[in-house]
Amino acid sequence: MVMKSQKRIVKTPVKDLIIKCFMEDPLPICISRAKDGTYVEVNKAALKIIGLPRKKVIGHTSIELGFISAELRKLLIDDIKKQGFAKNIPGKVNINNQVVVNLLFRIHPIKMGKETFFMVCATGIANHKSSIGKLSDDKLYKITLKDDKFVTEKLKQYQLSPRQQEIALLSAIGDSTSVIANKLFISPLTVKDHQKEIFRIIGIHSRNELFPKLLNFQ
């Protein structure tokens, strides 16, 4: 009588497998409540970037921890409501008030029973240079772009003359050369001459690079 050997198959519960995949994913992933932004779970990669222990993240909101502003969160929610998700959202994480890491975020809502959660995934800007060039078509990018105060503050770090600051601001918020010329009562050629010098001082080659440079994306 020949006995067939039987191999014992150990099945890993799917729930445990999903949790392990989430925690070990090399990309930073956070899950928060949609209604208030409270973190309910973060994976190891996210904690590594955030620079805080898990107990100081879970139960706190992204606004509390200083990751995003209330204004930006409202824009994100509005965008998610309209198209069902948000992607290519430029943002930064301040690690221990010392190092600022620029990231691109994508956010997907997940409904569990009566409650909705946001799954937020992040990738480094350096790994997505191709996406930066497409940000000019992104709604949130355009809204940020029109924030004159933000642009003005960023321009202060460069040694620009008052006229150059005016032209740099108008260029950054999307005005064409002819529109800038009309607003400042100067010729388009004069605007172009100023822009060449502005680009040289800031360290860029074209107006398409101006706003990403101010966001520290380049």
Features:
alpha+beta, Arc Repressor Mutant, subunit A, elongated, 2 domains, 20% strand, five-stranded antiparallel beta sheet, 10 helices, Beta-Lactamase, 5 strands, 218 residues
The coarse overall form would be elongated
Second CATH tier, the architecture of the largest domain: 2-Layer Sandwich
Q: Would you tell me which CATH topology of the largest domain applies?
A: Beta-Lactamase
Q: Give me the strand/helix succession.
A: HEEHHEEEHHHHHHH
- Approximately how much beta-strand content do the residues carry? 15-25%
| Class derived from helix and strand content | alpha+beta
Describe this structure in words.
- With 218 residues, the chain is of the alpha+beta class.
- It has 2 domains: 14-133, Beta-Lactamase; 148-214, Winged helix-like DNA-binding domain superfamily/Winged helix DNA-binding domain (Arc Repressor Mutant, subunit A).
- It is built from 10 helices and 5 strands, in the order αββααβββααααααα.
- The protein has helices spanning 14-24, 44-50, 70-83, 129-132, 139-145, 148-155, 162-172, 177-184, 188-202, 210-214; strands spanning 29-33, 39-42, 86-95, 99-112, 115-124.
- It has a 5-stranded antiparallel β-sheet, with helices on one face.
- Helix 6 (148-155) packs across helix 7 (162-172), helix 7 (162-172) crosses helix 9 (188-202) and helix 8 packs across helix 9 (188-202).
- It starts with 13 loop residues before the first helix and ends with a helix.
- Residues 126-132 and 139-146 have low confidence and may be disordered.
